[in-house]
Write a structure and sequence with these properties.
disordered N terminus, five-stranded mixed sheet, Penicillin binding protein transpeptidase fold
Length: 720
């Protein structure tokens, strides 16, 4: 027999619901000798029971919680339900407190079940007198004397038998519970344990199962139905016996009207409400994240995630709608991270948790996949940080072999000489590999490992140039953390889902210095958006892995980072799967659902160099082959430094221990000029073409001049 059936009729006054209501059942009965005798017996029994309570309490302490624990539940950052799990015995039993339940329902429950709940010590003497008198008068039980505390004791101990011994035991347990627990605690136990049909226990589980909503705000009809169901949970189940459920609900409404708990008009209107005829599935938001959280914290009955339920709902719907358009068997994953805290606000691990054809049970936010070009920003960042390049540095995109490795672009074309900014925005491969060769693959791998991101290499392999183009494994959650670091001035936040996790100790994780991170963010903010998306709203990068197996898009603004992955969970190639058309549109739609207003990126740091290619210091104007350009010749009329000559060795000692200034002269310039000494600007006259500079220390000196037309020249000399 089902447990709900076993535990039906929790109130003894309904043990014989088929009998006509006795005219004297609700009080006002004539006092007869039989009733006087019953009253006296009840009082004596009550006194004897109370006298023995202290002895029994010491010998047989009460059980204050059921042996079968409550359902584990996972809630969002505001405490709203994301997912619940059945108990080990397969029941839906969700924890609940009276303050989280509709007050009208509580008034109706107490008025119907135990009007003196807040006044009696667990046993209601008046109810005992009434029940005993009715039993003597009619030769059978007409109404019971169970209080809510007694019913709660029975629910905890789960004793199905209906005997006088059980009733006396319930009375004793009720007295013990009242001595140990507050009325609110007792009511909370009842609200969590009362049977509502099948494997549904507790008012919260019942409200979700029958109405699809939390019990904090109920209609009168809903509240009345929830009061009626525990009296006979199996015969009144609305999903099986809706007419019986309706009749029981209406009886509760009529009684509440007679007791003036609600008015007659409200009761009549509540009777017109439909009765549910089927159970509603329990919420399964962030299902994969919830499963992982419960597995990681089996001792926590309630696990609070950093997820925002409304955003999670919206993005799950977005992914569920978009994935089928990518093709059969494809899945998709999306993460939203709050940059400042690292809190994950949405965690969509698959296209559809229940879709077996898309491997919905596989959490692709944690899968190790090839990142395509999404690591390129960190190659450029290290190059910027090391002084090898600047966003406006010229780089070459031409067929180039790096040992035996000859990368080419996605479209098999080459762009020639471009700036580093253009190369990253167009995701050109040769410049990225050239910069990685200069930076060092091992250095890139080590820098990412320093902030907690371990690249997955083939067995026994070491970092090589291929990692810059996706020849490595990484997780979506790690990419989200790295890009949040770009938005944070290089500081990678501790990305996670546990809202109650302690804050990490130690210094912040720094993937790039502040200036390099800003350069990268500024470059990515100019990446051309996908079709029908607005430019300049976010900084983002896409990546398509080798063989069209993975499509990525990761973007950020001043507040959020969103990371998107699309592909087949089994790693099968998907011809035509391109990040720009598969992942980038979802990235922009996700940002639109976050907020209509974008939080801008941080302004440039004070020490960032804002310049054009022509106004950069000469060492930064070109990288690699692009830096190997001849110096201007005076015969062409172009700007050039006439003195000192490049590479000269100049003695500034005047023979008396004092140092002469370093003379300089410029030809072919469009005035006014800007002069730099070792990268620091100097103040000179608007029409000055020559002069002298104080150089106090011996060593190498770099002199750079830029004219008003943007032309520049530079020399390096050694002064003694």
């Amino acid at each position: 027999m089902a447990r709900g059936a076993r535990r039906g009729h929790v109130c003894a006054r309904h043990l014989r619901p088929h009998r006509p209501r006795h005219p004297h059942r609700d009080g006002g009965e004539a006092v007869t000798p039989g009733r006087q005798t019953a009253a006296a017996l009840a009082i004596v029994a009550f006194a004897a029971l109370a006298g023995a309570a202290s002895v029994a309490d010491r010998l047989l302490p009460p059980q204050l919680a059921p042996t079968d624990p409550a359902s584990a539940i996972v809630v969002d950052r505001e405490g709203r339900l994301l997912r619940a799990f059945t108990t080990p015995e397969g029941r839906w039993r969700l924890p609940v407190r009276p303050e989280t339940v509709d007050p009208t329902y509580l008034k109706m429950l107490i008025a119907y079940e135990d009007r003196r709940f807040y006044d009696h010590p667990g046993i209601d003497p008046a109810a005992l007198v009434r029940a005993g008198g009715q039993m003597l008068a009619h030769g059978e039980i007409v109404s019971g004397a169970s209080t809510l505390t007694m019913q709660t004791a029975r629910l905890i101990e789960d004793r199905p038998e209906r005997t006088l011994n059980r009733k006396l035991r319930e009375m004793g347990r009720a007295l013990q519970m009242e001595a140990r627990l507050s009325k609110a605690d007792i009511l909370a136990l009842y609200l969590s344990l009362a049977p509502f049909g099948g494997n549904v226990e507790g008012v919260r589980a019942a409200s979700l199962a029958y109405f699809g909503r939390e019990p904090d705000r109920l209609t009168l009809g809903q509240a009345a139905l929830l009061v009626a169901l525990p009296q006979s949970p199996e015969t009144r189940r609305p999903d099986r016996f809706p007419e019986a459920a309706r009749a029981a609900r209406d009886r509760v409404l009529d009684r509440m009207a007679r007791l003036k708990v609600i008015d007659a008009k409200a009761a009549a209107e509540a009777k017109a409400e439909p009765v549910p005829t089927a159970r509603i599935p329990f919420p399964k938001l962030a299902p994969l994240a919830a499963e992982a959280a419960v597995a990681a914290h089996p001792d926590r009955p309630v696990i609070r995630l950093t997820v925002d339920r409304e955003l999670q709902t919206s993005l799950e719907a977005l992914v569920r709608a978009r994935a089928p358009h990518l093709g059969p068997g494809l899945s998709m994953a999306v993460l939203v991270v709050e940059n400042a805290t690292g809190h994950i606000l949405a965690d969509v691990g698959s296209a559809d948790y229940l879709a077996d054809d898309r491997a919905g049970h596989v959490d692709m936010t944690l899968a190790e996949r090839s990142p395509g070009s999404t690591l390129k920003p960190f190659i450029y960042g290290l190059a910027f940080e090391s002084g090898l390049a600047h966003p406006e540095t010229l780089v070459e995109d031409r067929p180039t072999a790096f040992g035996g490795y000859a990368p080419k672009n996605f479209d098999d074309t080459f762009q020639g000489t471009v700036t580093a900014r253009q190369a990253l925005q167009m995701s050109l491969n040769v410049p990225a590999v050239a910069l990685l060769e200069a930076v060092g693959p091992a250095r890139l791998s080590a820098r990412l490992a320093d902030v907690g991101v371990d690249l997955v290499l083939p067995k026994d392999a070491t970092p090589n140039l291929a990692i810059g183009l996706g020849g490595v494994g990484i997780r979506l959650i790690d990419l989200a953390a790295l890009y949040a670091g770009l938005a944070n001035g290089g500081i990678v936040p501790p990305v996670g889902l546990d809202a109650d996790a302690p804050k990490p100790d130690g210094p912040p994780a720094q993937v790039l210095d502040k200036v390099a991170a800003w350069y990268v963010a500024d470059v990515l903010s100019g990446t051309p958006p996908p079709v029908n998306a607005r430019a300049g709203r976010i900084a983002f990068k896409t990546g398509t892995s080798y063989g069209y197996r993975d499509a990525w898009a990761v973007g950020f603004d001043g507040r959020y980072t969103v990371a998107v992955w699309a592909g087949r969970p089994d790693g099968t190639a998907v011809p035509g799967l391109v990040a720009r058309t598969a992942a980038a549109p979802v990235l922009f739609d996700a940002f639109a659902r976050l907020s209509p207003d974008r939080v801008p990126l941080a302004p440039a740091p004070p020490d960032a160099l804002i310049a054009t290619t022509a106004t950069l210091p000469p060492p930064l104007r070109g990288f690699g082959a692009a830096a190997e350009t001849p110096r201007p010749d005076s015969s062409t009329g172009a700007l050039r430094i006439a003195y000192p000559p490049d590479g000269a060795r100049i003695d500034l000692d005047d023979g008396s221990g004092r140092r002469r200034p370093l003379a300089w002269a410029v030809e072919g310039a469009t005035r006014p000029l800007t002069l730099y000494l070792d990268g620091a600007p100097l103040t000179i006259g608007a029409h000055q073409r020559k002069g002298a500079l104080p150089v106090t220390e011996p060593g190498f000196v770099r002199l750079t001049v830029v004219d008003s037309a943007g032309a520049a020249d530079s020399v390096t000399v050694f002064v003694e």
